[in-house]
Structures are given as structure tokens and as C-alpha cells.
Amino acid sequence: MAEPLDTRNHPNRFTPGKSDRLLGSDGKLQDKGNLSNWLTQADCPVIPPPTEKIACLLNWAEATFPSLLSPPGGPIQYFSPYTYRYYQATNAYVGVSAKDYHVYYLDPNGVMNDVGDLPRWLVKAGCQ
Questions:
Q1: Rounded-to-integer distance, Cα 30 and Cα 121, Å
Q2: Within this chain, do residues 22 and 79 fall inside the same structural domain, yes or no?
Q3: Which residue, 81, 109, 83, 107, is CA-closest to 95?
Q4: Do 60 and 113 belong to one domain?
Q5: Residues 12 and 64 in one domain
Q6: Is the C or the N end of the chain the one with fewer CB within 10 Å?
Q7: Edge-to-edge strand order for the sheet containing 102-106?
Q8: Helix (H, G, I), strand (E, B) or coil at 107
């Protein structure tokens, strides 16, 4: 792993406030996880995952779980922070949160289920 960036004397040092939570007591940037988490902590807009990867995952999920996700092939929609598809026949949603890069399934009873992180599902679906 590369050395953390020393920001103590950097001309573009983070301003005090929420962004300084990313700095350690030594003034160096700390490894705090994926980019989306950093952006959230710094009050920056989150970056949604690429739509083509989400479409690939949803297409795979529809073929794998047709009784839960019907009809297949609906439009991909976006409602921050989620990129998702709605399945009218089963009254369910599957989406990906740009906030934590997790895949969520909203079942017909309105219960939100975190089914795991996006990279793991992309590998399983052959969409990486």
C-alpha cells in the first residue's frame, strides 16, 4: 500500500469541519474504505456505479430469480442514491446504492433487504 498523503503543508489542505475526519492525528489521509464512503464523509455527491454493470446484474438476477423479479427488462431508474428496476408483476425492486455500493431487494411487503456488496454480485453474475 502506498504511503498516505501528508496534507499538513499542502496548499489545498482540507478545511476544518467534516472533511477533517479523513485525516489522522499525524495529518495524513487515512484509509477509510471505498471512495463512496469518503465522498459521503466529505459531504460530496456520491458517484453511482456504472449503469451498464447494474443492467448486467439485474438481467442476470431476472433470469436467475424469475419468480421474484417479473417482468424482466424494465427500465433502469435513478432515485438518489439508488439505481434500480421495479418489477410490477411481483411488486418488488432491486437496486444498488451509490452510498455504500450494496445491492438491495425491496420485497412486496415493503421490507428492504441488504443482500450484499455490489462487487461480489458482479463477479457472481459475470458482470465485472
A1: 27
A2: no
A3: 83
A4: yes
A5: no
A6: N
A7: 77-79, 82-87, 92-97, 102-106, 112-117
A8: coil
Residue 122: CB partners within 8 Å, gap ≥ 6? 53, 56, 57, 128
Output the 3-class SS for 45-86. CCCCCCHHHHHHHHHHHHHHCCCCCCCCCCCCEEECCEEEEE
Q: Walk along the chain (128 residues) in steps of 10 and give the mean pLDDT of each run.
A: 46 41 59 54 62 95 97 93 95 94 95 96 95
Contact 24, 30 (CB under 8 A): yes
Which one-letter amino acid corresponds to residue 11?
A: P
The answer to whether residues 9 and 60 belong to one domain is no
| Region for 27 from its dihedrals, namely left if φ exceeds 0, alpha if ψ lies in -120 to 50, beta otherwise | left
Same domain flag for 65 and 5: no
Instruction: Say how far apart CA 39 and CA 33 lie, in whole Å.
Output: 11
Q: What nine digits make up the cell of 106?
A: 425491496
